[in-house]
Amino acid sequence: MSKTVKKTHLLLFATGNIHKIKEVQHFLRDYPIEIKGVALKGKEIQGETVEEIAEFSVLQASKKIGKPIFTEDTGLFIKLLGGFPGPFSSYVYKTIGITGVLKLLESVKDRSAEFRSAIAFCAPDIDTVCFLGTSSGKILIKEQGIHGFGFDPIFEPDDGKNKTFAEMEIEEKNRISHRTRSMRKFVTWYLKHYN
Ligand code: IMP
What is the pLDDT of residues 119-164, one digit of tens each? Predict the structure, then answer.
């Protein structure tokens, strides 16, 4: 599809994260959908899965806004740590940060990890739906790259040609990222239901 696709749908994206908005906007270049970020105050619940967190958040957002809206929750699941930080990724990033995560993995050989992105959508006329996208890779021993956000500088996706997400421009990250994969599922579903 071309880059000049006419935008015929407007979707609200409940997030205050400018990086997520940019990635999603870039992903949507080929679709007739434009988004508007809505930063809502409210605490993120603690849940066992990113799907649970995204579904809870979107319900809260939908109650406040009263219009169709979607949200996205990501977690970094490190195999050797039993999936930690997983649904606690935001808290871990804010507290011990990347340095702390690298410390936890000091002299660890199996550094396999996975990003999981859950997109939940809610509208007055339907039950909440949720879509999962993943990206598997490994945690490096030090930060590499200046792009992206969050844990990007230490995560090297398997299909990323030995580069971390932070060593990629949005375009490259978006070809293989967890968020692109969950968005693709969501948008496919959305356009079938709302066209
Ligand atoms: P959130 O709860 O979805 O906002 O994200 C949980 C944590 O993971 C936050 O610290 C984010 O900065 C980080 N994070 C979310 N998405 C990504 C990503 O695509 N790459 C790297 N880190 C991310």
Answer: 999 998 889 999 999 999 999 999 999 999 999 999 999 999 999 9
The distance between the two most distant Cα atoms of the chain, rounded to a whole number of Å, is 52
Give yes or no for residue 151 CB within 6 A of ligand 1.
Answer: yes
> 30 catalytic, yes or no?
no
Could you tell me the domains of the chain? 9-194 (3.90.950.10)
* Entry pTM: 0.96
Q: Which residue puts its alpha carbon closest to atom 17 of ligand 1?
A: 150
Q: Which of 89, 95, 132 to mutate to test the pocket of ligand 1 (most atoms within 8 A of CB)?
A: 89
Q: What pLDDT, on the 0 to 100 scale, is given for residue 188?
A: 98
In the prediction, which pLDDT does 3 show? 59
Residue from 73, 125, 152, 158 carrying the catalytic annotation: 73
Residue numbers of the chain with a pLDDT score lower than 50: 1-2
**β-strands 33-38, 9-14 pairing:** parallel
